[in-house]
Amino acid sequence: MSVARFWREIPSRYNLIGSKCGNCNKIMFPPRFICPYCRRTGKLEPYNLRKKGKIVSYTVVHAAANGFEEQAPYTLAIVELDDGPSVTTQITDCNHSEINIGDTVELVFRRMGQDGEDGVIYYGYKGRLLK
Amino acid sequence: MAVGITGYGVYVPRYRIKAEEIAKVWGADPEKIKHGLNITEKSVPGPDEDAATIAVEAARNAVSHAGINARDIGVIYVGSESHPYAVKPTATIVAEAIEATPNLTAADYEFACKAGTAGLQACMGVVGFGMMNYGMAIGTDTSQGAPGDALEYTAAAGGASFIIGNNGSEAIATIEGTCSFTTDTPDFWRREMRPYPRHGGRFTGKPAYFKHVLSATHALLRKLKLTPQDFAYAVFHQPNGKFPVQAAKELGFSKTQVAQGLLTPKIGNTYSAASMLGLASVLDIAKPNERILVVSYGSGAGSDAFSILTHDAIEKKRKNTVPISKYINQKEYVDYSTYAKYRGLLVK
Ligand SMILES: [Zn+2]
Predict the structure, then answer these.
(1) What is the DSSP string of A65-101?
(2) Active site residue B237
(3) Is B179 part of the annotated catalytic residue set?
């Protein structure tokens, strides 16, 4: 990922800022420039999604991606947010045996990766089981 | 002008390692270590945590507790000795993650374990002078001791965030006054590009920790014309579980006054966060109109002492706190090999 792209996406990566259409009231994440439902009559505004949702599906990754070796095995989940949209995210601070479909998670602020030892550090949201 | 604490928030990572587990690796006697340092276990940050992520969770908790709009925060100071970047502020990451940007000033502080309270004093000045309505001071660290060093048993991770505002009805407590004691004392240091700190062994006690903590406390008590009996609680910086208890005794404070703010035996030395987390632990249970002494210590060396008096709002706002006991009790033990992997101690 380029530093410029990461920087542009900081509001959605840090604070789950998506879009809400003033015409059809639909909430979208990640943010959109045009409402896919209303097209030209849509009125998109930035919208802060609540940092809470439910796990609808998950998978345990044993063969870690580059840079994630020390976290294996880790869990990737599809989380349906309380505001409607779904996000794919890692579930942090847990053993995968603890996770069940339907579990409530909060989205917390974590390190997502880094661009090598001397590159930029990417931060963003990860799910954490709400207990 | 007196200023108040509008809100606070804390964070301690979920992982713990027991002193026995570290002692086993280095062939040390675990009972001797546990007794000598008065510590049973310490917190360990997860592989996706650093001083910035810890600061963000503490800061978000502080904003919810204070019940203010983060955009009204005019200044954020983040104190740490483990900032994720050598050059690039942690404070801007925190400011963005709590949506306080862009109309504020921000900076990182460094002064070993007292960088957080140095930021607190600066916020008192900025808010007390009327430059800003609210200031946020954070102490956060993911400290490391060299493998096998005595510091490895205590160097832990955690963060605390305090929002300083005016002393009105929304303040949970007034900061009645602060005094510092600072000298050039090389008791602990880390040179540029070096991964682990070095320390002066026995030299870290009497001429360093005790001299500064005791002197700052004496100066504050003199200035405010108070005695140890005027305080319900006392919190001292806690590099281990022993020093703060000993300092309290020498100053005339009882073990009961110190107990609630003494966290190191359970979570280790959280460095810049240590005295601030101790204060948060006291505020979690304090009643209105109770006086709290807080004394930080940073190697190199200096101490900041504060006298804090709680108000009625402390009980009204309590429902909005995430108490430190929640983070302390939600824990998962790791063995030394997992700890080594999470802390990046393995050579690949
Ligand atoms: Zn629409």
Answers:
(1) PTT-GGG-SEEEEEEEETTS-EEEEEEPSS-GGG--T
(2) yes
(3) no
